[in-house]
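Subject: sequence -> structure tokens, single chain

Hey, anyone have a minute? Need the predicted structure for the following. Not urgent.
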Amino acid sequence: MALQIELVAWGGWPNCYRVSNGMVELIVTTDVGPQILSYRFTNTANVFKVFEEHLGKCGGQDWHLRGGHRLWMAPEDRVASYSRDNFPVDVQVAGDALTVTTDVEPNSGLRKQMIIRMDEQGPGVRITHRIQNCREVPWAFAIWALTVMAPGGVAVTGFPPRARHEDALLPTNPLVMWAFTDMGDPRWTFFEKYLVLRQDPLVTNPTKLGHFNRKTWGAYFLGEQLFLKRYDADPARPYPDFGCSYETFTCATMLEIETLGPLETVAPGCWIEQTEQWSLHNANLSSISADAIDRALQPLLETWLQEGTR
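Reply:
Had a minute. Here:
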């Protein structure tokens, strides 16, 4: 099946776009957003969490967590980050690219854009996130790409390469806490190479951690499906939140896998951007153990992780 980009009604909105290559499909809203609210194999369930109470609604003065994948600015700000995204966005389709662009947000003075490209074959998707500073003065901020996963799964991220004490005297990466982070929370599991966060609908208190890895990646195991996203961070540049390129958060209803771009001082009228690579796989996590994670993820990540290290 050839790649298709078509206008469809979805979730109560009449103007969504379905991007599909016969193996996987995305649903992108344009009546609000921009947001990607569904990513799935064509014969399976959506791996993203969608908040049903917000579907189909437009306008209003409040920000709504509809779920799916969204684009924010970092560091988190109660006004600028939560700027209203309740209005239609511009849509351009050119070849394999679906581009969705907001008007200038009234609360933040930013214009946001996603450029979405799906591979003609296989489960791969590239999401380029772009933000323009439409204020009259320079402003320091970063791209923040947040993906809200359906409940009941297990998130995994990887630390930078490990080494012996005698061979690596200097620190390699931060591990960043929030005021509500409890390191004794049983949803966290720490391994030599991996940080694991389990989503538990019965635990109501939120928790969050962040870290930096030049090869930033996050995986989410949900039943027999695996969602994987990754991008190349730049260790020579500053990052928000004490140097995080990756953050993960959970509460009773969902789990977020988040990547952050470098913190940049953006001149008026200029854009910054960051690109994530996505993929879906048929895989499960047989146990929460380093060996099980290795078996599931090493074949998918090994070549990419070795790029630039030879």
